[in-house]
Each structure stands twice: as C-alpha cells, then as structure tokens.
C-alpha cells in the first residue's frame, strides 16, 4: 500500500516550482514563504489573477518601479541575501522581455483566480479545470526553446497569488541576452529609448525605415553588380544565362539577408513589430533561396538542351531525346520538393501553427479544401507534364503535328509545351492537350516519313508519262530513301479533274518537307513542258482552268 502511495505522490511533487513538497490543495504550489529577502513595497502589485498580474506588472515596469516588479517573480532559487540585490535587476530584464518579445493576448488571459477557461476548444483541453501553471509562449535562445510560464503560489497562511515561475526566472538572463536591448540601443540617449507609441521606442521609429533603406541599397548594389558582370560575358555562354536567371532572386536574397543581419546585430526591434517582421523576413529569405536554386537548375538544363536542339532533332539521337526529357521531368520533381521544403521551413520557423490558428483550420479540413480547390489545375498540369515525360508520348526534340502545325518540341514545362514550327515560330501548347487529345508524333518509333504531293489534273492526262518523269526524279534525288517504294497513284476524281498523288519516303520530317516541295516543283515544271510541246489541245491541266485562262487572255 505504501508503495502505491509513493508512486502516486511522486509525479505531483515533481511538478512543483521548488524542492518543497506540493500542497495538498491540487491547484496551487505551496511554499513556506515567498521571496523573504525582498523588502515590502509601499504599494503591492495585484497578483490575484493572471490578467491582473500582467496589468500591474506592465504599469509598474513603465514607471520603472523595479522593486515592485520584483515581487511578481518567484525568486525561490536565490538565497535570501541575493533576492534583494538581484531581484530588481531580474525584474527589469523580465519586463524588457515581456515588453519586447511577448504578444500579450489580454482577452486570452484569465481574470479568475483559479484561471478556469470556461469556453472549451482544441487549444484548451483543460477547459473547466482550475490551473496552477500556464505557459504564455516559447522563446528560443542559445539553440534551445525556453517556456515563459506563470504559476499560482501559496503560503500556508496566505492567499494564492500568480507569479512568474522560478524556472522562467532562472532563464531570464539567457533570454535577456537574446531579446534584450543591443549594444547599439544601450549607447543611445535615454530620450530615444523611451516608448513612442504601440510597443515602439523612438529609436525604433527612426531606425525601421533606415534598416529598410539599407537593405534596399544592398539589393540594388547586387542587382547592378550582376548586370555589370553580364555585360562582360558572351551571351552564348552558360555563365551569362545563369547570371541573367539569378538577377532577381539574388537581389531578393541580398535584401532579406541584409535586413536580417542588421536586425540581429544592431537593431533588435521589439514587441508586435518583431512578430510581424520575423515571418516576413523568413518567408522572403526562404523564397529567395528556393528561387535561386530552382532558376540555376532550370537554366543549366535549358542551356544544355538548347545547345543541342538541332542534334536532338536528328533521327539517330533517340537516347538523347529520352535523356533530356527525363531530365526535364526530374527538374519538375525537384521543384516540387524544394517548394514543399521551403513551405515547411517557413511554417516551422514562423510558428504559424500556433500563432495564426493554422492547426484549427487544418484539423477542420478547411485549409486542405481551399488549397486543393485553388491548386487543382496546377497539380493536374504538373502530373500531366510528368506523365508525358515518363510515358514518352512526346519528348524534347520530337517532331509532332498538332492542330495543323508541324513542330519540334523544345521544352516541356509545368503547364505548357514550347513548340518550334518549321518557320521558327514558337507555339505554347497546354500539357493537358497532349494528354487528353490526339496528336501525331512523327519521330516516336521511325523518324522516316512518307511524303506525298497531290495535284488536280485533267482526266485526259497521261499518267504513264508522269510516272516515268517522277521515277527519274526519285532515282536522282538523294533525299529519297528507296526509289522503288515511290509511287504515282490516282486517288480520286470529280467532274472537273482527277486527283493524282506522288509518294516518296524521306529519312525524317525535315527532309520530307523539303522533298515534298521539290517534288511539287519538279512535276509542275514537267507538266508545263508537256503541255507546251503538245501540238494538240493541252490535256494535263484541268479543263476548267484552261477555259478560265483563255477567257482572261481574250
């Protein structure tokens, strides 16, 4: 029985703020005496509730009544002789920390002696229960997190009071070193260190625009330096392409880095302003670094594939087309990971989960629904571009026929494919079109292409003479792969004329297009000679055309 009582009593004793046993009353920490070494001030602070504690502490702190503020600190870890000597100094440091770095939600501070939260929520699992310890916030210093806590204390014959806990008082010097005034601020005249408005001192009102101007100047210098560096480089070199790509991200990095450096080393802004600047600074810096990494990767890949654009169009470079297409898909996957990692860093470093109610939205699923709805098209395009790359339906360097245009694929991006037409125009085609619609890939398996030319000729045209003329042409043209495969076919007719098709195979679409033009030119020239040498009525061109030409001549 005694063993069970000891096991039950152990965790209760471990939670006390000092080595004295915990009270039999479960909702206070009981001490024999509270701060016996401090002199009793003429006017006591109101320590009955958490809200009263901070209201009276802030009033006394602004009045610089450090002896009074010291009575709000549990100095149990100090000897009786040290309490009177160190208490006011620790009180001043605690006030600076609270005034500078803790955003006090006055509506969130309980105004009840037992600190009972009457409204239940996921953030208040102890709603309805009296409390004897409250964590106001977490502050980071020296590579670790410190909790800023208040506790409810009671002496055997006294009333319970709320005070800054002894663990927090023990950590005040380390927190003050991180969140207290900098050497620059300490060197300023007292008038500039007085509070102007909000939580800002006069020196902060003056310094904030100065810091911003200095950061903008650093960004402008980096921007000008990169531009000067680019001017001395050959535009065809990789270094020029990288310098052009990092122009803006590097400038943003300089802006955020200079701003952070000035804030951490010289200007230690306080209170609400710091809570706004910190997440903005981290977000801007992480975004700039992420963009810097992504543009360098993209520039290197684009430069490598751009230098080999003509080679990739070569029918024999099947492996090269596969390689650069998979490389582009890998780039998109890396981009997704970089964006996710950057978002995670921002969320963790800014503690947005606790400061903006992010966890409440996430637990209800509202944020997830908003993000999915907003990003559904972008996510669909991303998956489509990756699917195109790995399914090899279209590769960088492939010749495709899309919406009446003969093009080469130059780039497969997140949302669009960049196509280069035969006349050097650029078409931007949505990736979804190459997933949900049909298109012709002329280099998918065999780059060779059967070219054809169709001409409308008179029904009395001598097809055998044309076949002989065409056969002589294909036997002497180097672009024709197999002269025996070439054919002349009558593929249709109507009341005015018949349709004659001339077929020949070329080794790739580009050679096929040129061959097609040469075939048309040669056959039309041959027909013109045949008509001119025939003493009878011309029989190769359609009759309707002959009549119209004759009427125009007369």
TrEMBL record:
Residues 379-444 form the Mechanosensitive ion channel MscS domain. It comes from the Bacteria. It comes from Erythrobacter ani. The chain crosses the membrane at residues 200-224, 245-262, 282-301, 333-350, 356-375. The keyword Transmembrane applies. This is Mechanosensitive ion channel. InterPro entries: MscS_channel_2nd. Keywords: Membrane, Transmembrane, Transmembrane helix. It holds the Pfam family MS_channel_2nd.
């Amino acid at each position: 029985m005694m063993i069970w009582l000891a096991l039950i009593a152990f965790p209760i004793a471990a939670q006390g703020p000092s080595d004295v046993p915990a009270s039999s009353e479960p909702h206070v920490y009981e001490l024999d005496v509270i701060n016996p070494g401090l002199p009793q001030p003429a006017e006591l602070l109101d320590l009955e509730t958490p809200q009263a504690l901070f209201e009276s502490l802030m009033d006394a702190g602004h009045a610089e009544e450090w002896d009074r503020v010291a009575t709000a600190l549990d100095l149990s870890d100090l000897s009786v002789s040290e309490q009177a000597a160190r208490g006011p100094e620790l009180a001043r440091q605690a006030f600076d920390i609270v005034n500078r770095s803790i955003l006090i939600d006055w509506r969130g501070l309980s105004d009840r002696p037992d600190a009972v939260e009457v409204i239940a929520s996921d953030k208040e699992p102890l709603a309805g229960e009296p409390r004897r310890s409250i964590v106001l916030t977490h502050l980071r210093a020296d590579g670790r997190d410190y909790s800023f806590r208040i506790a409810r204390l009671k002496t055997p014959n006294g009333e319970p009071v709320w005070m800054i806990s002894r663990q927090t008082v023990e950590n005040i010097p380390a927190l003050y070193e991180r969140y207290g005034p900098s050497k620059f601020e300490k060197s300023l005249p007292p008038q500039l260190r007085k509070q102007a408005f909000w939580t800002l001192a006069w020196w902060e009102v003056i310094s904030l625009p100065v810091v911003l101007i200095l950061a903008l100047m650093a960004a402008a210098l980096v921007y000008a330096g990169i531009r000067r560096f680019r001017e001395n480089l050959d535009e065809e070199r990789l270094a020029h392409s990288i310098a052009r790509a990092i122009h803006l991200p590097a400038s943003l990095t300089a802006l955020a880095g200079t701003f952070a450096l000035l804030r951490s080393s010289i200007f230690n802004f306080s209170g609400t302003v710091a809570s706004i600047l910190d997440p903005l600074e981290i977000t801007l810096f992480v975004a700039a670094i992420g963009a810097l990494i992504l543009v360098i990767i993209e520039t290197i890949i684009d430069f490598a594939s751009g230098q080999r654009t003509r080679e990739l169009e070569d029918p024999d470079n099947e492996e090269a087309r596969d390689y650069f297409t998979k490389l582009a898909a890998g780039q998109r996957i890396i981009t997704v990971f970089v964006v996710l990692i950057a978002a995670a860093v921002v969320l963790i470093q800014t503690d947005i989960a606790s400061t903006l109610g992010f966890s409440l939205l996430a637990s209800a699923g509202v944020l997830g629904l908003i993000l999915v709805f907003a990003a559904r098209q972008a996510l669909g395009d991303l998956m489509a571009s990756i699917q195109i790359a790995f399914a090899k339906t279209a590769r960088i360097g492939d010749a495709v026929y899309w919406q009446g245009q003969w093009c080469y694929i130059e780039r497969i991006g997140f949302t669009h494919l960049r196509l280069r037409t035969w006349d050097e125009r650029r078409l931007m085609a949505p990736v979804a079109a190459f997933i949900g619609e049909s298109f012709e890939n002329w280099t998918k398996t065999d780059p060779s292409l059967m070219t054809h030319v169709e001409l409308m000729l008179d029904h009395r045209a001598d097809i055998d003479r044309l076949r002989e003329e065409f056969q002589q042409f294909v036997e002497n043209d180097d672009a024709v792969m197999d002269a025996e495969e070439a054919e002349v076919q009558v593929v249709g007719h109507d009341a005015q004329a018949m349709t004659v098709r001339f077929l020949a195979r070329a080794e790739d679409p580009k050679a096929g297009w040129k061959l097609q033009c040469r075939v048309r030119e040669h056959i039309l020239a041959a027909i013109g000679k045949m008509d001119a040498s025939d003493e009878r009525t011309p029989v190769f061109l359609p009759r309707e055309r002959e009549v119209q030409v004759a009427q125009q001549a007369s």
